[in-house]
Design a protein that fits this description.
The chain is an alpha+beta fold. The protein has helices at about 35-45, 115-120, 125-135, 155-165, 185-195, 220; strands at about 5-10, 15-20, 50-55, 60, 75-80, 80-85, 90-95, 100-105, 110-115, 140-145, 175, 185, 205, 225-235.
């Protein structure tokens, strides 16, 4: 079942980040019937989530809970970064190898980002950090959810170079080998490098989606399903299942 990546008190807030697993069902909002998706989301957090149509870019969607209508759910827009209202509805990104990143601000703001290799090359981590800053906040905690690790991520040197440029590091810093000795992209290292470049150290790193079939994997098993990382902030007197 869904597992806590983070459950922590920071000041007057309780910060929550949860990763769903295969057993929780496919969380892809464009492929799952809306009533089924509604039930799956409620079973994890007790409420509906704000999600977007992710396209491996760096565009930002600012969620507005009061403006969410039936027509705007389950997809609220097209983006790869979501900014919550402070203390707002849970926000989530879906993935099956790409990195789900959550940035918690100091005021109850939450930003979630979907970071595949193309998004990393385009600067999606910078876009997420800038979204926190643009909201007048700063990052208090960063979480990286389950994603593919280099053991399962064969890659080309040219594409590694593109990502290295996007996260501002030497290609060697994000280059590794797969378990069978082929050239690999170290995606967790790329995400962490991009965050460290902005003065942020991620405190949580989820497991490898390729090695562990608790999660869906497109690269390792060519699966159409998607798990999700969902995050929110709440006051200490609010109880969330």
């Amino acid at each position: 079942m869904a597992v806590d990546l983070l459950d922590r008190s920071e000041g007057t807030f309780r910060l929550r980040a949860v990763a769903t697993e295969r057993i929780d069902g496919d969380m892809h909002p464009a492929r799952v019937r809306s009533d089924v998706l509604h039930d799956r989301q409620h079973s994890v957090t007790g409420s509906r989530w704000t999600m977007v149509n992710q396209v491996h870019g760096r565009d930002v969607h600012v969620a507005c809970d009061s403006g969410v209508t039936a027509d705007a759910w389950p997809l609220a827009g097209v983006a790869d970064v979501i900014v919550s209202e402070p203390m707002g509805r849970p926000i989530a990104v879906w993935a099956a190898d790409c990195a789900p990143i959550v940035l918690f601000g100091t005021t109850g703001l939450v930003v979630a980002a979907h970071a595949g290799w193309r998004g990393l090359a385009a600067g999606v981590v910078d876009a997420a950090v800038d979204a926190v800053i643009d909201a007048g906040d700063s990052v208090a905690v960063a979480v990286i959810g389950p994603m593919v690790h280099p053991c399962c991520y064969e890659f080309t040197l040219d594409d590694i170079g593109l990502v290295a440029s996007g996260v501002r590091c030497a290609p060697a810093a994000i280059t590794a080998l797969t378990t069978d000795g082929h050239l690999a992209f170290n995606a967790p290292a790329a995400v962490r490098t991009a965050l460290v470049g902005r003065g942020i150290a991620a405190e949580v790193l989820g497991g490898c989606t390729g090695c562990n079939d608790r999660w869906f994997s497109h690269r390792a098993r060519i699966e159409p399903g998607r798990h999700a990382v969902v995050a929110w902030a709440e006051s200490h007197d609010r109880v969330t299942p």
